[in-house]
Amino acid sequence: MHPYLFISLFLLFLMNNISKRKKRILELGFWVVFFIVKIESKCSNGCDLALASYYVAQGSNLTYISKIFSQTIPEILRYNPQIPGGDSIESGARINVPFSCLCLNDDFLGHTFKYETQVGDTYGKIASEVFANLTDEYWVQRVNWFEAEKIPDFVDINVTVNCTCGNKHVSKDYGLFATYPLRPDEDLQSISIESSVPMTLLERFNPRSNFSAGLGLVFVPAKANSSNFPSGHQFFRIQAPTVVNFPEFVPFLTMRKIKFPVQFLVLFLIANRIESRCKNECLALASYRMWVRSNITFVSQIFSTKIPQIQSYNPQITNPDTVAEGSRVNVPFSCSCEDRGFLSHRFVYNVSPENTYSWIAGTGFSNLTTVSMLRNYNTYNELSIPLGSEVNVVVNCSCGDKSVSKDYGLFITYPIQSGESLSSIANESGINENLLRDYNPSSSFSSGDLVFIPGRDQNGTFPPLKTRRKRVAEGSFLEENANELHLASDSNLGRRVESGHLIGGAPPGVTGITVDKSVEFTYEELSKATDEFSMANKIGQGGFGAVYYGELRGEKAAIKKMDMQASKEFLAELKVLTHVHHLNLVRLIGYCVEGSLFLVYEFIENGNLSQHLRGSLGRQPIPWATRVQIALDSARGLEYIHEHTVPVYIHRDIKSPNILIDQNYRAKVADFGLAKLTEVGSGSLQTRLVGTFGYMPPEYAQYGEVSPKVDVYAFGVVLFELISAKEAIVKANELSSESKGLVGLFEEVLSLSNPNEALCKLIDPRLGADYPIDSIRKIAQLAKACTHENPQLRPSMRSIVVALMTLSSSTEDWDVGSFFENQDLVQLMSGR
């Protein structure tokens, strides 16, 4: 066992068996261990350009290389002036292939290419021969769902290549890097001579690499299409690159998808019962720098904020349409925990002619976001964004930090412009330089950095940091549930959440239950909002209660009324949705425990997936491209509860009626009444049988074994539903009363040597001929992998998200209007 891991486990044991005061001291010790092992920070942004040093094999040519890297030959030649032209290249030579370096899954820098398999391909051959050791056999297998011995011919698979954008702590003089696979005849000296980079610098950029090993990847500073090394990308605050060492910790990587040193952090999170990386929500300000032809009307539109609201924070503005170019305007917006675990707000921008990601980030949103962020949150190709389409623009924000100061509770997201510095910002804002550093410890306060500075409210004063008292639930609950919900009593990084007292006389066992970030409504409010729970307001009926429509405090809501006997389900849903916040999970607004048990959700106006697929209430058929997006949205929501929460949550009732569709046909996973939580690293659990037949995997239906793969199986059934619009259990034929599962129906077809003709008979007839059979076949293959009889052989939700993004990118030739035009979803790896 690694010595530091042993120390961490020992500290973990002590932390669970000592007083709170001593526990805080041990927490400090835990963090000391954490920093001793020098854990690499996960990436936050990528960069527009990296190079792959490709070793040319016998018989290879530029056409072949350009195809596997999805790059044009002229673009490759720009970075290889030594190539005279033409298609042939001398074997044994190296060429630099340009590609974009992205932050994949908020975890590491890389790029996922799409490769079409050929006869006789294996994961090892693809890694070593096709991609010239730029990746590893294990890594290729990890991001695909085909079994190693059964890779089909002529199917698209994912190939991920690591990259780096530099490290300002080593040197700011180098901003372009080549991912360089070492060969047996190379060493540190030869690479230094070839690259013209000092050996000491190469070692500092690659602190864990053995340059004499003759294998593995290193990152080497590279020249662009000139004789000079481009300087570091100041706009991106990239920390040390994370090199994935494949063989060392394969079992741990396979189970948790994280690198070895992060085990220390995981253990710390378990010890403190941390559910997610951020929970706050607050008002924030965006410092918008006015440009030529911009005005407050335009700013109001892109931020969806009324002009009087903007003026209230900017008393210097007298005429909203004549604001001086170069001046800054503070725009108020709501700041909350985004789906990937950080504070931000997602704006929707309507694309105008000639808009590019670069223009939207740099000019339209005044550097409040980055090109890399736009790529990560959108599906359109940067060079061909459809006119009139909607682009997601994510702007980071802050709600303050009581460990720095409680005197400041309103913060400005501030992009530093050329000519500004720490000193000038301190003078302008009236905030001490040391305090600004404390709030932005990783910033150098140079041009291109995004920092958070305390701001003034509408009265011109600095509002203090607010600490909200959390209200608690009451009702007839089982005593053991109180202990489960008490997990909310500790918040992020071990900071306590202040909790209030019980309202009224709560029964024994419920004392101490804490509800984070939810509103407690009165029965009177709910009754009034639903017209005394009238049938006219009833919009649904489930196994644990009825759902009513109502408007509460100015917001449309869906109110679930449950019997007191459904306390376990009530608590399960309350527990999940008060701790887990994600764009693709339905949002819980609040609750009530007077008379009955009530849960209040955001109202999703467009019904559920089942209703759309079956055409109920005269609904029009969903186009295929939209179905793919719905699948991706749902997968991201499940990936979040499986991969990015501690403890891990298992939904246990994934089905098309529990996937809600909003007005933009984006999906949200709902109904967490059967959700189960497990600690990190735990295997399957034995539990009572709940859920819906047709969606249950064999190990659950027969033995009651629960793991995240239960949700994976059910999600596979939903994929089959998206293809066929059939129920999970269907009649074998019209003349028979015998029923058959949708999984079995598709398995028969997909087992054929040429399934396309039979598959067409299963496709939803309401789609007509408006679908690409190749895409449907790939989705069906993914669904088959999800519904594998052996849970260990089913893909994880993270792999499914990657697969769906890659599959979506292949729809770029479809005639589907603005849904998926010229996509490059292979580059997007999302959802925490």
TrEMBL record:
Entries under PROSITE patterns matching the protein: LYSM (PS51782), PROTEIN_KINASE_ATP (PS00107), PROTEIN_KINASE_DOM (PS50011), PROTEIN_KINASE_ST (PS00108)
Gene Ontology BP term (one): response to bacterium
Q: Where is the Protein kinase domain?
A: 533-807
Q: How does it sit in the membrane?
A: Single-pass membrane protein
Q: In its keyword annotation, does this UniProt entry include Kinase?
A: yes
Q: What class of enzyme is it?
A: transferase
Localization (cell): Cell membrane
Note whether Nuclease occurs among the keywords. Answer: no
What name does this protein carry?
Answer: non-specific serine/threonine protein kinase
Please tell me the species this chain comes from: Lactuca sativa
